[in-house]
Design brief:
With 713 residues, this protein is an alpha+beta fold. It has 23 helices and 19 strands. The strands form 6 sheets. Strands 8, 10, 11, 13, 15 and 17 form a 6-stranded antiparallel beta sheet that branches. Strands 9-19-14-16 form a 4-stranded antiparallel beta sheet. A 3-stranded mixed beta sheet has the order 1-3-2.
Length: 713
């Protein structure tokens, strides 16, 4: 791939991806109860359509390996228009209501920073400005309103982390927040202030301000690198590619040196190189990051050559290299000592099989948990089946081997960037194949990656909480002197199952690790197989999102309405509640709630499933599905609970609770699996999803001529 292909393709696809995120944001906002946002949404979407089409057409019409500098400059100009347009459109999101922050965002930061994050108790807000920054709310407020200086704030500081609105649902943007937490930690420990004062004593105010600016950004970068790992740098570069066409090429600190109030940031390529150098002292798993950093440096060089010409570009590069070798490396030496001494957790991917994570994402599967390798488990099952005599200890040993461990946040995010980078690189390598359809396909894949990372973070945190709970129980039982009940060491007979009957326990285990991908029954996470696996079923747990039915202004749900009207009615009838990994929700008597399994499933085409409630909960009045408990062969996604409390008392339930069980039926001669049906509504569903009854073919499209309905009878 040539440098031109990489740079222009990368800028285009990063912009398209964030443009898609913006559309998803508008979709989740909806038209509003009074349809007040409908026209604004259409206007923004129409503008994005035009800018996207122009940028795609410009890139498609070129032979990037042979195009001359003049045409490359025109192409960069087209992408600059798209970049500026997107930034401007993003500013106008102030006209729309903000979406709530997702609980998994906080979970990711809490897991990353631990007690340091909880000590600051930062708020995470969404901003229409296309940037992210940290500020002390109390200080900001009192500096704006001098009269408030006489008031005493309840706490000394109030940290607010701002995230671009379009990135609310995108875990690949969340490492930017780790950088912002780094600013808060830096302020608390006075790292940048001390270093700037030590290295620039008695200098002019402008010089001190510049040193402070540079120290603060590099310190926050290194704190993020230490806690999140390479994902922090990947997130920064993904973000900056969107702004690259409109940014100044040459780094210019003159305004700050003259005392300007406007901050000056170190060049992004410096920040990326500094982070890479820092991480290289902590891990050897940096091949992909080294390539990413080098390609971004090449992107700056390519753009500088096109805009400035090679001679001026070389002069600019030489000047900036001198600044980097002199000033930046000096600052980094001082900052590194301070950052390494901070009481924060180091990221780790030592026990993670990143290649395996990336393969899962490639096959559209989550990476929140992983157990032993498939071939290892399959061998254990085969050895057990070949035993002449089988004891309880033998089967217990096999079952325990199926337990999965939660994946760390750093590994989830890094595997997401590795998968994402491959998707973009593959598309950038063939600019002649870029069309609106192929660009849409890529954006769909990037959306899917984000969704898989979100659910992976959620399930990993629920998984971790349940393991902590189990350990606490074991300690309590030992302290109380309660021994585990003795199990009879009976000899078990060989299986004599009818191949058309329900799958038994050992058959379920065998299908979970089948060597043939086409026969594999995928279920993850399997948190505690000893308690989850029954004689012919597998217990499933509650996920983290629910849709709660509400009392609305609707008199009824009109199944004879057109698609748009049904969509509007659904939004009024259901309210989404993001429970989070450590939250709870209350199911009131008679209430109907949509939820999902924590586990993600992929059924092969020769197995169907049946979701049922657990007897212990049914005896308390809990129904886990209203009518739809059947799972077709070929279904993929989280299964849906249609919860109804038939008792007289509310029930308080937390994510991870074993809410139901699923049994598996072998079937034969399936011609079209669920995912192959042209009108399948929920393929690859992640988390709880509302009914899509409005997509039934019998439901009218908006604008259909209702006068014709009787003429075809």
């Amino acid at each position: 791939m040539t440098t031109a292909q990489h740079v222009l393709g990368r800028i285009l696809f990063e912009l398209l991806n964030r443009s898609r995120r913006l559309r998803n944001y508008l979709k989740e906002i909806g038209p509003g109860e009074s349809n007040e946002f409908a026209q604004l949404s259409r206007t923004i979407s129409s503008a994005l359509d035009q800018f996207e089409a122009t940028a795609i057409a410009a890139v498609k019409q070129t032979r990037l390996d042979t195009i001359d500098a003049a045409d490359q400059k025109l192409l960069l100009g087209a992408l600059e228009v798209f970049s500026r347009a997107f930034s401007t459109i993003h500013e106008y999101l102030t006209y729309f209501p903000p979406l709530p922050i997702r609980p998994e965002t906080i979970q990711a930061l809490t897991s990353t920073f631990g007690g340091e994050f909880r000590r600051h108790e930062p708020s995470v807000l969404l901003t229409s400005a296309f940037n992210a920054f940290e500020f002390d709310f109390v200080r900001h407020l009192t500096s704006s309103l001098a009269a408030l200086q006489v008031l005493t704030a309840p706490t000394e500081r109030n940290i607010v982390l701002q995230l671009p609105t379009v990135d609310v649902a995108s875990p690949t943007a969340w490492p930017l927040l780790a950088h912002e937490v780094g600013h808060a930690i830096d302020f608390d420990h006075g790292i940048s202030t001390k270093i700037a004062a030590r290295l620039a004593p008695g200098t002019k105010r402008g010089v001190r301000l510049l040193m402070q600016d540079l120290c603060e950004e590099i310190t926050a970068d290194l704190i993020a690198a230490r806690t999140v790992g390479p994902a922090a740098t990947f997130a920064l570069l993904s973000f900056v590619y969107c702004l690259l066409p409109q940014e100044a090429i040459e780094w210019d600190p003159s305004s700050r040196l003259n005392g300007s109030a406007e901050r000056v940031y170190p060049a992004t390529r410096w920040r990326a190189r500094v982070a890479y150098n820092y991480l290289s002292t902590k891990t050897s798993q940096l091949t992909a990051l080294e390539k990413e950093v080098s390609e971004f440096e090449d992107a700056w060089t390519f753009r500088a050559n096109v805009i400035l010409g090679q001679q001026r570009a070389q002069t600019a590069a030489d000047n900036e290299q001198r600044v980097f070798d002199g000033l930046i490396t000096t600052l980094v030496r001082e900052i590194t000592k301070e950052v390494d001494a901070l009481p924060v957790r180091d990221f780790s991917t030592v026990d993670e099989d990143l290649d395996r994570h990336v393969r899962r994402l490639h096959y559209n599967l989550p990476v929140g948990a992983q157990g032993q390798a498939r071939h290892t488990l399959l061998k254990a099952v085969d050895l057990y089946r070949n035993l002449q005599q089988r004891t309880r200890a033998d089967i217990d040993a096999v079952i325990r081997r199926f337990e999965e461990k939660p994946t760390g946040i750093a590994a989830i995010l890094l595997s997401g960037f590795l998968h994402r980078g491959k998707l973009i690189a593959d598309m950038s390598a063939q600019p002649g194949a870029i069309t609106p359809a192929s660009a849409k396909s890529l954006c769909d894949s990037l959306d899917r990656c984000d969704a898989l990372l979100r659910t992976s973070i959620e399930t990993s945190e629920v998984h971790r909480r349940l393991l902590d709970r189990r350990r606490a129980n074991e300690v309590a039982l030992r302290a109380a002197g309660v021994a585990e009940a003795a199990r009879p060491n009976i000899v078990m007979g060989a299986n004599k199952a009818d191949p058309a009957s329900l799958l038994s326990d050992i058959q379920i285990l065998a299908r979970l690790v089948d060597a043939d991908d086409g026969n594999l029954l995928f279920v993850s996470p399997v948190i505690n197989p000893v308690t989850q696996l029954g004689p012919s079923s597998l217990d499933v747990r509650l996920g983290t999102d629910v849709f709660v039915t509400t009392i609305s202004t609707l008199s009824h749900l009109d199944l004879e309405a057109d698609r748009d009207e049904l969509e509007r009615q659904k939004r009024l009838y259901f309210r989404r509640h993001r429970v989070g990994s450590d939250g709870v929700f209350v199911l009131h008597p008679g209430q109907f709630v949509l939820a999902s399994t924590l586990e993600y499933f992929r059924f092969p085409r020769d197995i169907a499933g049946r979701l049922e409630g657990r007897s212990s909960l049914g005896r308390l009045g809990l129904q886990v599905h209203a009518t739809a408990g059947f799972v077709d062969p070929g279904f993929e996604g989280n299964l849906t609970f249609e919860l109804i409390n038939s008792g007289n008392l509310p029930m308080r339930i937390a994510p991870g609770f074993r809410l139901g069980q699923i049994c598996f039926f072998p079937v034969s001669e399936v011609q079209l699996s669920y995912g192959e049906k042209p009108d399948a509504k929920y393929p690859g569903s992640i988390s709880a999803e509302l009914s899509r009854v409005e997509t039934d073919r019998e439901i009218l499209y908006p604008g259909a001529d209702k006068h014709l309905l009787g003429e075809t009878r």
